[in-house]
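Hi,

Apologies if this is the wrong queue. I'm a grad student, and the batch job for Maleylacetoacetate isomerase from Kordiimonas pumila produced an output file that my downstream script rejects. I'm not sure whether the problem is my script or the file. Here is the sequence I used:
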Amino acid sequence: MIENKLKLYGYWRSGTSYRTRIALNLKGVAYETHPVDLRQGQHKQSAFLQLNPQGLVPALDTGTAILAQSPAIIEWLEEAYPEPALLPKNLQDRAYVRAMAAVVGCDVHPINNLRILQHIKTELGGDEAAISNWTAKWISAGFDTLETMIEKAGGKFAFGDAPTVADCYIMPQIYSAERFNVDLQPYPRLMAVASHALQHPAFTKAHPSVQPDAD
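Support response: The file is valid. Your script probably expects a header line. Output copied below for reference.
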């Protein structure tokens, strides 16, 4: 158990920050929120770059180390705070949950994050419609997969009846899908899981709309 109070550096609407907040809340770990305004370029300023030279959020100050990259942070939380577990006990089940998370973390979010969308707009001349179409294409592809995976192994949550790492990844991606007006009607199982998760205090406390830097 880590005794230092954790400090989370993130941005209210960042999906990676959002998923990290969910994991922290599910673990019941106290942490301080330190907003980093991406729109103002604070992630590229020297004060933040000293924390994370890559200039990306989130970063987690454990008191003894600075951790970057949300997958690494969430895995660290699972090891530092084993209970409640966010990965199943069974080896194959753990792989399945990690695969669900990777659908978002590897295949959807990286090509839809802010810097990619800015590149499409400024370097490739994409308008808002082009950006929305790009975003919807990859979110829908990921959700097609998750709908099938939840059909096979889901319960009240994406995997079974307790929240896992998969839910930490899925919920921010649903928030992003709603922002970009992605049609979610083809995903009834996914949306049922999301509706249930939003009744859990760990998820409601992590929602972007209630963060101190939200506007």
